[in-house]
């Protein structure tokens, strides 16, 4: 028994030392990086938010919201397509990701991200929101809180989570609220370039699609302080008691803006059953399930996704009588 305990202690020490090495390595990796020259910034109550704006000034507005650890660069092909169709495209970097200001108070909850989005739309005018994965939460939340700012909602593999979760924070969220632990976890995983490729592939059904997007994914991670900023955000990934209306089934049922749903049939992160459930609750104007596609349709099946998006946008506009 003593030998077993000693072995376990050494294994724990080795694990902690390995994680610490990754965290130190992050300090050397994150030496600074500049945003794309096409980046604009919009002031919000929580700091400046980076956006990529394209398309005709007079076109109908569409806001693109990315998922976890991504940024507006992940929408580059979608943005170009929509701009070519006459849309005024606003692709947002939801902090702490991308090139937006990082909040020293770590105000990154779903409600606070919705408030950032509200400030952006106060500046640009109402828009249709296309929200992918974790980013769909902020779009849905804003549609419930300030529907006058949201013309329609297109949910792409929306990670809205369990509806009506138990009261109080769950254990994992509290655990990763411990900053040294959270920084060690992020430094060893999300911002670790040795794992960027396998982590991205884990979200995909079409694994080969990952390679073309690694450089895009990693670019803003080279900003100084990325690991610390992502670690401050991490509890929001697991928290459920954040006061968000979009976590309540009755609120989702009462949503007033037109909704369309796009999902990959082979999604293992947000299984396709969630798509049909959300579509039923929101009385979706359109529900499109893409075959042999996982959690990130716009990089796994670009052509199929663009067709689905065009169809979805037409459906919600028809619902609005446009």
Describe what is shown at a glance.
This protein is α/β, with parallel strands linked by helices and 322 residues long. The chain is built from 13 helices and eight strands. The N terminus is likely disordered.
Description of the molecule:
- With 322 residues, the chain is of the alpha/beta class.
- It contains 13 helices and eight strands.
- α1 (2-29) packs across α6 (179-188).
- The chain is globular, with a radius of gyration of 20 Å.
- The protein starts with a helix and ends with a helix.
Main sheet? 8 strands, mixed
* Overall mean pLDDT: 89
Low-confidence stretches: 1-15
The strand line-up of the biggest sheet is 1-2-4-3-5-6-7-8
Query: What's the overall geometry?
Result: globular
Helix-strand string: HEEEHEHEHEHHHHHHEHEHH
